[in-house]
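Could someone model 6-phosphogluconic acid with this protein?
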Amino acid sequence: MGDTGANPNLVPREVLPGVWACPNAEELARTAARRFVDWAWQSIARDGQFHVALSGGSTPQTLFRVLASQEFRGQIDWPRVQIFWGDERAVPPDDPESNYGMARRELLVRVPIPGGNVHRMEAEDANMGRAAHHYEALLRRYLPLDDRGFPVLHLVFLGLGPEGHTASLFPGSRLLRETSRWVSTPNVAKLGKRRMTLTLPVLDAAQRVVFLVAGSEKAAILREVLLGHPEPPLPAQMVQPRNGERIFLVDEAAAALLGAGVPTPAAPRPASPKGRT
Ligand code: 6PG
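Reply:
Sure, complex below.
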């Protein structure tokens, strides 16, 4: 995963299989943006559309800004991009807590994406169960189904919470045993709030799941997710795409406890002149 132009110091290093560490949060966002462009081209060339679920929280903010930048926004065929969310807070779209609101401010109003291509979760609905059904119907309308009947997203961005939650799948939640519903509205005891979230079967049906993780405060939980064997497993560990790939794009601060990384293959020794070992 090189391609950072000339500067080798900016090349993400593979710290574990499928786990790439970037020098800092800005380079993490730029690496993710470059990947987004490539995956968009591949999916649109193959399927005519690029179906993406965005994550919430603070980490994707820089990525959204980079994607909306002069350098990147022209590289993406936005009319062929369909935007969904992995989860949402039970607040109106203009609330500072809204995941949709943040993406709208940082990305969606700055790129030529048709309004009809943006599919937010209406988690502020007083009847969240009905809103979850609506969202499931929406996914059914836009997305192909896999061999188990779950909707297939080309790309799902996910974050990592301090205790190992991802999307709005929190440790200890019954939702982690969900096997049929696509969208759910858990009451998150830790927050005392309801959320709307895609379920594990939908995340596992994706062609590609990308965790974006930044900051030293995430180093311990990232190590636990990638190298730990807690019982029961953490929600972020339970995301295992069945026919797709799982990638972690992190910054060096978050990767600080992951060790020296995947050894880069030694350069082949120059052949020694005939007869000399
Ligand atoms: C949300 C998220 C959540 C988030 C993690 C990490 O709505 O909060 O989707 O899963 O990704 O909590 O959040 P930060 O990026 O802010 O650390």
